[in-house]
Amino acid sequence: MIDSELVNRKISLIIDDIEKLSEWKEITKEDYLADLEYRLKTERLLERIINRLIDLNYHIVTEEISRQPKDYYESFILLTQTGFYDSEQAEHWAQLAGLRNRLAHEYNDLKDNHVYDAYQSLLSELPPLLEKLQTEFGELEQDKEAERKQL
Questions:
Q1: List of residues 6+ apart from 90 with CB closer than 8 A
Q2: In what helix (H) or strand (E) does residue 90 lie, and over which residues does it extend?
Q3: Structural domain contains residue 36
């Protein structure tokens, strides 16, 4: 059974981090690339956001289709089996698993301009995804409680 409290909490934490990232959305790529402090803060916030999305994926996939993803990438792909999104969307979001690994393990191929592009994209793409996650998996217990009160 989906733990709607967990889903709501993770989404709330992601939203908090998105709001922090949003404070810098007007920063040009040149300014971003020139400022180590912005880059470090952005990388850490992105890592936290992606980790929480992966946590949500694992929880939803495990509960909905009774399957444990073999890795972070697959956690996004398996969400298609819940009907949450199609394979094209899954592939798009699964790319975050690679970014997360590069951020967490400080791989040499981490390109600051790619991180900038990723965070700029996520600022617009994540809110609708989070809203859909909230609607489909986060409000379950609240909806049941409201129904009970109406009876």
A1: 76, 77, 79, 80
A2: helix 87-105
A3: yes
Find out whether 42 and 21 touch, Cβ atoms under 8 Å.
Answer: yes
In a domain, 149, yes or no: no
Q: Is the predicted pLDDT of residue 68 greater than 80, yes or no?
A: yes
Q: What pLDDT shows up at residue 13?
A: 97
pTM above 0.70, yes or no: yes
Q: Residue 13 belongs to a domain with what CATH number?
A: 1.20.120.580
User: In terms of residue numbers, what domain contains 65?
Assistant: 4-144
Q: Where are the alpha helices (DSSP H) in 23-71?
A: 29-34, 36-65
Tokens of 56: 């949500």
Q: How far apart are CA 144 and CA 149, in angstroms?
A: 9
Look at the chain and report how many structural domains it folds into. Answer: 1
Q: Name 121's Cβ contacts closer than 8 Å, sequence gap at least 6.
A: none
Does residue 81 lie in a domain region?
yes
Separation of alpha carbons 81 and 87, rounded Å: 9
Compute φ and ψ for 110, nearest 5 degrees.
Answer: -70, 115
Q: Has residue 110 been placed in a domain? A: yes
Q: Are 138 and 4 in contact (CB under 8 A)?
A: yes
User: In degrees rounded to 5, what are phi and psi of residue 117?
Assistant: -60, -40
